[in-house]
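Go through this chain.

——
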Amino acid sequence: MWIVEVLDALVTAELEASPDAVLARFQRVAEMIETYGLAGVGAPHLRHLAGSLWEVPLGGRGRAGYTVPIHVVARRRRVVAVRALMKAGRNAQRGEVALALARGKGGDMIRKRARVGELHKKWRKTRFGYAKALAELASEFRLAAQMIEARTRAGLTQDRLAERMKTKRTVIARLEAGRTKPSTRTLEKLAAATGHRLKISFEPDGG
C-alpha cells in the first residue's frame, strides 16, 4: 500500500490556502495513488517532472484564475507533498520546481509529516465547502478509478493499452480523467483490451 503525506506545517498551510474544490480534487487523487501507486495512476492526474519529483496538475482554479499544482516527491511507496502554489504560467513554475526539489532532498524530508487522510478528516469538519466539493467529484473519480483498476489489473501502462485499443495514449489519459462519459463501444474495447467483461447495471437512486 502507498502512503500520501504532507511534508510539514508550512506545506499544509500552502495547501489550505487553496480553494475547497482544489483540496477535494487533491484528496481524490491521493486516494488513487494510495491504491494504484504513481505509475498506476498516470496522466492526467500526475505528471513526472524530474527525478523523484512529480506534479499533481489539479484542474481546479484558484484566486484570480491561477491554477493550483501540487508538487510531490516519491520515495519507495511513500509520496510526500512538498509544495503547493498558485501560478500564472510556466515562468513561475521554473523556480517552483527548484524549490520543490530542494525541499524534497535529504534532511528536508525528516520532518513531522501529516497523512493526507488525517487532513481530509479535519477539512471535512472545518471547511464547509470541502465536503460539498468532494461529493461533486465522486462520480468523476469513481469512473476514473474503475478504468485505472482494469488497466493496472491487466498489468498495462497507458501506452500499452493505447496500442491494444489502436488509439493514442492521450485518448487513454482523457478516458482515465473521468470527466467525460465514454460510449458503450469504447468501454467494450477497453474491457476486451484489459481482459475484462463489460457489465452495465442500474442502481436505485439513493435520493
In short: The longest strand covers residues 53-61. The chain has nine helices and six strands.
